[in-house]
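Readers outside the structure-tokenisation community will struggle with the description of the input data as it stands. I therefore recommend that a typical entry be quoted early in the introduction. An entry of this sort, consisting of the sequence and the corresponding backbone structure tokens, reads as follows:
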Amino acid sequence: MTLPLETMRPGQLRLLVLTPDYSDFLWLNALLAGDVEISADATWCPDLVDCDDLIRNASFDVIVWDCVFHSGSEASFLQYLAVASNEKPVLALSAEPPGERAPELLVAGAADYLCRQNLDHWNFRRALKCLWYRDQLSESAHGQLGREVATGFINRDLFFDRLQQALLRAERAGHRLALLHLNIDDFRSINESFGYQKSDQLMMKLAERLRHSLRRVDSLMRIGGDELAIIVEKVEDSLDITQIIRKVVNALDEPVTIDGQTVVVSASLGVATYPEAGDTAENLLRRANRAMFEAKRDPGTSYRFYDRQLHISAGYQLRLEADLRNALRGKELELYYQPRIDLATEEVRGVECLLRWNHPERGLVGPDEFIPVAERSGLIVPIGYWVIEQACKRLQESAEMGFPGLVFAVNLSFRQFHDRKMTETIFRIIFNANVDTSLLELELTESAMMHDPEYAQRCLRELNQLGISFALDDFGTGFSSLSNLQHLPISLVKIDKSFVQELGNSADAEHIIRAIISLAHSLQISVVAEGVETEGQLEFLRQQHCDEIQGYYYARPMPWADLVQFLNKRGQAACLQQ
């Protein structure tokens, strides 16, 4: 494909430089000075927090990355850059010779590599221009492909060529690839109702909608009158494919308007993956086509995988997610409550609210099975707010039943902090419930703070001003626990059950628990030990002046009616003791 010269005309290059050292930024800037072909606008980024903010909220043409700048592993950081920057090219810099470092970095996702020792203004400018022009070429080609789809362009030869190139890239990099073959159901009836021209418009609108929901690295083409094909590159696992299918299904679920008439369409999707289902373009399309015809057996928009194992794993995830959406609407979710016992008085000081799912076919589904699905799909956000609503409702009921002062603890997912209206939503829930906010406790893990620490801290401060208290869950298992205790409004820490259950078997576990209790008490923070199941564990924690315990020794998680009965029995026992 030949591009007009004006699309490649030099202009201003927007550059993001990821390096911790400001002198390196100045040095790289100096290497660009005086170039008559391009004017570089370089932005320096010295730390990871700014990096995330800049990449997501600003626009750059090329990212220059010093390899010492990352958050764990180079490969995972490159993957993060690709996703966050919408696949912008990354020029990697390091001290090692290209022969030693370039191959692994290029496979991991870098677009080019330069050795710092050999870096001068000539090879630095050349590398940047090549990456910039290559990216412009890719964008123009992508735009041209989009125009071809939008105008009803059908070219199976071009599709096979594109699929073959994608397969070669996947083979070289050791990546997997997926081909989605999409066929509109009962397209003949649409043709008869609206005519061929209007039906063509419907296909164009669907293709345009789907194209906007895909990643930049993915390709979409129309390969028949009622057929579209999507090439999904750089597939890590079945979850990557489920995310793409989810977007495709959601896009197809929206009605299409033609000449003022609303048309609801359904489609059948066949999915074939490289290398499991084939290693040639012909084999992959044939098997995706076969899977698509299998999907035709199911009513509505449906999908089938050619590969049985992927069908099982990815298909199960999608079905579970669909069921979970219905569960939220259909009142299948329920809270169970596990009491927390004060060790000094043996009274019930509070309860932890734990989510359970009463599936109409599978029965009671445990949180270990559905919470990860809820978090990956984002459903955990509305579910989390539902849990807070239910907890506030029960908090009010418990006070009316004669159990004042009972604390209700709710787990807060890291996904909640992705919602920029989290504080506002929680405030509205507790305002409508009219409860004593000092009896509502939100439990969070350290991972909840990792995405955007500043935003998380601001949310916690605002909620703390409303009277809500916070507990740090799984304390001792993360790396930033001490700093969290210093900078966050934490009033309680929960010792992870993995330490409690090692009591009697591990001297290290005893030392760790002693240290946690001592540290927390020195900061005027209370301590709850989770997973207490034996008399020996209970006695050790009592000797160390642990404040509260939670575990099977006293009570398992239970439905609300059973909790009320449990509280009444303990209240009667307390009266008898007096």
User: Anything to note?
Assistant: The longest strand covers residues 348-359. The radius of gyration is 29 Å. Residues 174 and 430 are 51 Å apart (CA to CA). The longest helix spans residues 121-150.
